[in-house]
Amino acid sequence: MRAPEPYDLVVLGAGSGGVRAARIAAGHGAKVAICESDRVGGTCVLRGCIPKKFLVYAAHYRESFADSAAYGWTVDGARHDWNALIRAKDAELDRLHGIYCRLLDEAGVATVMGRAVLRDAHTVQVGERLLRADRIIVAVGGWPRVPPFPGHDLAITSNEALSLPERPQRVLVIGGGYIAVEFAGIFNGLGSEVVLAYRGEQILRGFDHDVRSALAQELRAHGVDVWVGLSPIAIRRADQGLETTMGDGSTFESDQVLVATGRAPNTADLGLAEAGVDLAEDGSVVVNDQLASSVPHIHAVGDVTNLMNLTPVATAQGHALADTLFGGSNRTVDLHAVPSAVFSQPPIATVGATEEQARASGRPVNIYRTSFRALLHTLTGRDSKVMMKLVVDRGNGRILGAHMVGDDAPEIMQMVAVAIRAGATKADFDATIGIHPTTAEEFVTLRTPVAEKEGAFAG
Length: 459
What we know:
Layout: E1 5-12, H1 16-27, E2 32-36, H2 42-47, H3 49-68, H4 82-107, E3 110-113, E4 116-120, E5 123-126, E6 129-138, E7 142-144, H5 158-161, E8 170-174, H6 178-189, E9 193-198, H7 209-221, E10 225-228, E11 232-238, E12 241-246, E13 251-254, E14 256-259, E15 263-265, E16 298-300, H8 311-326, E17 340-342, E18 348-352, H9 355-360, E19 365-372, H10 376-380, E20 386-393, E21 399-405, H11 409-421, H12 426-430
Parallel strand pairs: 1-2, 1-6, 2-3, 6-16, 8-9, 8-14, 9-10
Antiparallel strand pairs: 4-5, 5-6, 7-15, 11-12, 12-13, 17-18, 18-21, 19-20, 20-21
Helix pairs in contact: 1-4, 1-8, 3-4, 3-6
């Protein structure tokens, strides 16, 4: 074993949060090493946001080709080449991996390839190398979690779904979170028969109830067969593919079963507990407001903390932490009113409080909600609706939350989030002139609160 190599900072994991932390710390003059067991780039670049969004783009074209006829276009012989899409996606991921490697190199960060394990609170082992660190940042992210029912090894996760050798004709998606609904939309849009089965009473637990209802309706309208109240108990090989048995005895036949029932922090066998780092029951690193663990010089950022599993949050945390540790500042990341999106079909975007959260706080609220057919579909005749909603503090008029289901929702919500973080009120929205004709203008033309007795969104 070699003698330990001294570093001011060793980062475990070269994803978005870890790479940003390493680069910023090195820019402040720290001697930094970053350890990675796979390719540089992490979940977002290699197994999440970027490749998945390419597939989402591809999936949109089928309906766009069909809708174009209403506008005078004739598209003959349109067909999709799955392998061409996967090759193009992989080429772009290779390019991004190279960019991340170059950025680390140009920043003066030493990239150490291999699985890193803590041998004590200051020593990291990677293969035969020992790294002695004054400070450590854990940024190893998460990994898909598959329940251990019989035959679970026959299923795939979101990792494998991005690189299948061919598109399955029939797909059963198990789960009701954002990954499940996104892949249901992807495979449905590319021509597969898709069943989405979720154990709960409605998909997208934790989102606003109107968003959940609206997306469930839209998924069904777009051709996804959505079932709730079902959990798998076994998968077996059958003559025509895979047969999945549910807890109620029902069965589904498919060519692939995609299990998207959540992700777990990637902390197993990392040596964290042995080094004195407190882990939560789910394996996440417990951190304080300064992202420090129970061992003060060991910090954690991103999905491994389970504070908020979003790539921009991990990146912001890595930057703020590096500035704090090596840049002489004292920065934290404010997780109030963080916007997020689900790239389902149609997409969801949300920022701030749900109606349930606002009411649970005890404050009186007004709810503004609308549902309508977008102008595009007045000619296509497609049975698809946009749902938009504002949650407003009745006392001071401040907008507490905004939610949308419909095309371009993520692009629209980004700017709505700026307004909400700036403390915008409903009067500010009312005084803003809309851009006509757009979907976005509906956020500034909502005038009448929903009556309390009107209840939840019903389409």
